[in-house]
Design a protein that fits this description.
alpha+beta, Trna Endonuclease, Chain: A, domain 1, Arc Repressor Mutant, subunit A, 2 domains, 4-stranded antiparallel beta sheet, 4-stranded mixed beta sheet, 34% helix, TnsA_N, TnsA endonuclease N-terminal domain-containing protein
Length: 253
């Protein structure tokens, strides 16, 4: 029943919506207009992560190389979105369940805790809600519509994230094992890999030109994770003969 809010001016939305934020373990509720500039990247989740034994969800903690801390999720789909956010060079911070958004839909009081608050490197904010398209119901769609409206009122981006392309996601999941900065060392190996792959060649062959593959491959995978090296992550699962090239190579364009 978000229809009652559709025609509301953005200025009015600043008071039509409230945010409940966790402060020292207690929820503090204020209007959207007086709390939108809270540094949510430092906020605690407003509720515990939960999942049902007989459901599709699965709660857990993902270690984010971006924030150097664990970020919670409540499903494999949310975990996959976390991995993609962690790999995005424009993302500076990620927080799960950052606040409760409260509003009245014209019939009853409603509330929704978005899945993620994302701070971008240029200072912009993005709210991300994760749900597969075939699992959307009316109540969820209404909650997402209300969240989008609240975001628009304060200049935040809103993203509804569904299922990622499966082959791409499988490859990025593999690369995420090498997301930590230590996998990119020693620097001399990273520099040599960037030099070798200026001419596109197979992953296995290029690693062998640099040195002992047991030492070289973790660095190579870290560079693929960071985007310094490129390969086709969509056309098929990575193999030893997958073509790899250095980012910015004119051949890749």
């Amino acid at each position: 029943m978000v229809g009652a809010l559709v025609g509301v001016l953005d200025e009015a939305a600043l008071t039509a919506f409230d945010l409940a934020i966790s402060v020292n373990g207690s929820l503090v509720r204020r209007s959207l207009g007086s709390s939108w500039d809270t540094p949510f990247e430092a906020a605690d989740p407003v509720r515990e992560f939960s999942w049902r034994k007989d459901g599709h969800g699965f709660a857990g903690w993902y270690y984010s190389a971006t924030v150097r801390d664990h970020v919670g999720y409540e499903s494999w789909l949310e975990r996959d979105r976390l991995i993609l956010l962690d790999r995005d060079p424009h993302v500076a911070a990620i927080v799960s369940q950052p606040f409760w958004l409260h509003w009245h839909d014209g019939i009853r009081k409603r509330r929704h805790a978005p899945d993620y608050f994302v701070r971008l490197s240029d200072g912009r904010a993005r709210i991300v809600d994760v749900r597969a398209e075939d699992e959307m119901d009316e109540a969820t769609q209404e909650a997402f519509d209300a969240t989008r409206h609240a975001c628009r009122a304060v200049g935040w981006e809103f993203e509804w994230a569904g299922r990622p392309e499966p082959v791409f996601m499988a490859n990025v999941r593999w690369l995420s094992r090498y997301r930590r900065a230590r996998c990119g060392r020693p620097a001399v190996v990273a520099d040599r890999l960037l030099e070798v792959f200026r001419e596109p060649m197979g992953l296995w062959d290029g690693a062998g030109l640099v040195g002992d593959r047991l030492q070289v491959l973790p660095v190579l995978f870290h560079l693929l994770w960071s985007g310094a090296l490129k390969t086709d992550l969509v056309g098929g699962l990575m193999e030893t003969d997958s073509l790899v090239w250095t980012e910015g190579n004119t051949w890749a364009a």
